[in-house]
Amino acid sequence: MKIRLTRTIALAAALSAAAFFTLTFMPRALAQGTPEVKRTVLMRHDTPQAGFEALLVGVEIPVGGREGRHTHPGLAMIYVTEGTLSLDYEGKPTVDYKAGQSFVVETGKIHEGINKGTQPIKAIATFIVPKGATLTTQAK
């Protein structure tokens, strides 16, 4: 009887410790999720074409990060400065762009930049968009 009681107490302690660990640390791990993509507007300038502006944006995608499928309200030209960016682009096969390479994303096309590599991606993006427009809209 004493051995059974000791086992029951040990099992209860183990389950309590597991529950404590799960409730304490798992929400933090889940909240972190996928590493965040960082976009920094470096420059904004009105274009000669009335109602449009050009933006120069620094983009950083950490290892394992992805932008999520999205669109832009105007033309985007991207130059990769570090790492390798995997681009999923609506209607085209996935293409990897390495440092020193560039690509264009047409207005309204659904696309996503993904870092499948072992080092962070850094890129410079130039956008020509309607003035005041939301730069990125997540795809549905």
The CATH homologous superfamily of the largest domain is named: Jelly Rolls
By CATH, the topology of the largest domain is Jelly Rolls
The secondary-structure element order is HEEEEEEEEEE
Please report the total strand number as a whole number.
Answer: 10
Oligomeric assembly? single chain
H/I helix tally: 1
Helix/strand-derived category reads: alpha+beta
Please give the largest β-sheet: 5 strands, antiparallel
The CATH level-2 architecture of the largest domain is identified as Sandwich
CATH C-level class of the largest domain: Mainly Beta
Taking the alpha carbons of the first and last residues, their distance comes to 61 Å
| Inertia-based shape | globular
Mean pLDDT over all positions: 85
User: What is the strand arrangement across the widest sheet?
Assistant: 1-2-9-4-7
